[in-house]
Amino acid sequence: MKKLTSLVIAGILLGTSGSVLAGDAAAGKAKSATCAGCHGPAGISSNPMWPNLASQKEGYLVKQMKAFRDGTRTDPMMGPMAKPLTDADIDNLAAYYSSL
Questions:
Q1: Among 87, 64, 71, which Cα is nearest to 53's?
Q2: I need a surface site. Which of 10, 62, 64, 93 has the fewest CB within 10 A?
């Protein structure tokens, strides 16, 4: 019984963590035009100063974009770009770039 309870709890936690990061990749693609200027149209930057966003983990992208938006991570170019993004925008962008 204890093992079954542990498995149920683990399943709930895994299911919850997946749904928290469930952005809309299509909406993210539509929103990504501004990002493409530095990070490339398919999330691959041609400039070594800017990171590739394609195939990054969704949770990582969400964390970093929120940090730029909220000012806990600073960059003179990314701060102003991230400032107007809503949580939904960030989730969608992260879903899009992680899908590439």
A1: 64
A2: 10
